[in-house]
Amino acid sequence: MVFQDARGTALLTPDEMAEADRRTIAAGTPGIVLMERAAEAVAAAVHSGYPQAEWIALLAGPGNNGGDAYAAARLLREAGRRVEIFGLVPPTKLRGDAAIAATAFGGTAHPVDSFDPAAFDLVIDGLFGAGLSRAIEGAAAEAIRKLNAAPAPVVAIDLPSGVSGATGERLGEAVSADLTVTFFRRKPGHLLEPGRSLCGPTIVADIGIPATVLDAIALMIFANEPELWIGALKRPSDAGHKYDRGHAVVFSGSATRTGAARLAAAAALRGGAGLVTVFSPGSALMANAAHLTAIMLKRCDDEAALGEHLTDARFNAFVLGPGFGVGERARNFAATVLAAGRSLVLDADGITSLAGAPDALFAAARGAGKGASPHGKPALVLTPHDGEFKRLFPDIADRQGSKLERARAAAERAGAVVVLKGRDTVIAAPDGRAAINAIGTPWLATAGTGDVLAGLVAAELAQGTPSFEAACAAVWMHGRAAELFGPGLISEDLPAMLPKVHRELDALASNPRA
Ligand SMILES: NC(=O)C1=CN([C@@H]2O[C@H](COP(=O)(O)OP(=O)(O)OC[C@H]3O[C@@H](n4cnc5c(N)ncnc54)[C@H](OP(=O)(O)O)[C@@H]3O)[C@@H](O)[C@H]2O)[C@@H](O)CC1
Ligand SMILES: [K+]
């Protein structure tokens, strides 16, 4: 299900964007009007971001991205800037709206080979946008190399030329921009690396395409923003009891490796699970007991003990992996949890333990997903980083394609929600829905943050949030907590930031458009 407000977070593939464009034009807005508005948005970004830039070069390609450049050049000239166009093809070779824009510009266009960025205060990149269909070579590649080596700032129209809107991959040479102005909605390539870094900050301009054109498009890819999942999120209610918010369990590793489990447990409790218990081997009980207060502790040495604990139906969401150790014990515990119809977040060693033979657990996850539980549908959520992903899905990891495609293929195969981590974390559901993380800070790349994320996913699952939305919300809360903390973050700081994150979510939940 896609919530009404989630349409604002949709990411459109170039094909879907072309469809939105076609429908808008068919409903009566001429293409040249859209182009003119796109150019106005580019000019406005230049006025606000680069008010001092007197002499501006615009690189214009053979399609409508080039058309936008001609229209923007005219508007900037009218606003008193000095502009020069460098065309990949002569203006007479342009077609349709781009030809109209070039005629309205009226000035000369220099051949792109004569482009020397050294002379300019600012360069606007209108070589290729949504229509990029193959690797950039030849004169365009040469111009991009010169541009990237020069100090002048770069504003990209729609996408930095050379970045695939669908995948964020570089197709041949690619522009490294300081600012990107795109239209109507972002594309996956604005959020997936390396596209995301090549874009710089991205402005999404309204060019008068109505949101209703999205009604005819089966939206599947989203920016991971609260509007996507806030309607599905279970929030603590005034009338509620702690047992209404579920009981999360984190498996501890051996005596010298208990910290990871406690980090996950702390995140699960601050994340909103009603109760949290650490299941610990006897050898680690004292180490855990010395550090736990609100979080409970139970001895769990083997499958028999686990089976005994699972007779208590209130334990409903489990985390297995952080500091747990790799091997048969992890595999058996995971299978036992799923067979008992409980939700499971499998992270770190839990994932590595499945390497080479994950199919039995995937089948168990599918089976468990068919059952019902008092706290929602049980589910398997996998939270690999790239290395763990490759151990579990070696063939998918080696395949050509974007991170988005890899995560979706893995989710489909596993019958599980897959959270493929990184700066551009992708959350994919078996039904094809996917969200790309848009927030966070480089400080999140530090020991233990993955354990915190696993605990946050469990917190949402324990409360009964459906698994895709649970994983998306956890990734967002994790990133937002890091942003709110700022520089110097270590993983222990994240749970302490969650009260602020919850306050933001509560404000959004009561007023989603705020
Ligand atoms: N959608 C909207 O609502 C609106 C869209 N707008 C704007 O339109 C842009 C999309 O325009 P577009 O479709 O004309 O594609 P564009 O990126 O200009 O490139 C296509 C041309 O490049 C060529 N070409 C491709 N790859 C190449 C390569 N590697 N090396 C060399 N050539 C290559 C390709 O040739 P072909 O593949 O056909 O041989 C074709 O000639 C979009 O990004 C936005 O800026 C706005 O005006 C507002 C409304
Ligand atoms: K461009």
- Mean pLDDT value: 94
As a percent range, the share of strand residues is 5-15%
Number of domains: 2
Q: If you consult CATH, what is the topology of the largest domain?
A: UDP-N-acetylmuramoyl-L-alanine:D-glutamate ligase
Largest sheet: 10 strands, mixed
Identify the strand order in the major beta sheet: 8-17-16-15-14-13-12-9-10-11
Which architecture name of the largest domain does CATH use?
Answer: 3-Layer(aba) Sandwich
Bound compounds: ligand NPW, potassium ion
User: What's the CATH C level of the largest domain?
Assistant: Alpha Beta
Sequence stretches where pLDDT stays below 50 over 5 or more residues: 371-375
Net shape: elongated
Classified in CATH, the superfamily of the largest domain is Ribokinase
How many separate helices?
20
Give the N-terminus to C-terminus distance in angstroms: 22 Å
Count every beta strand, where a strand is a DSSP E run of 2 or more residues.
17
Helix proportion range: 40-55%
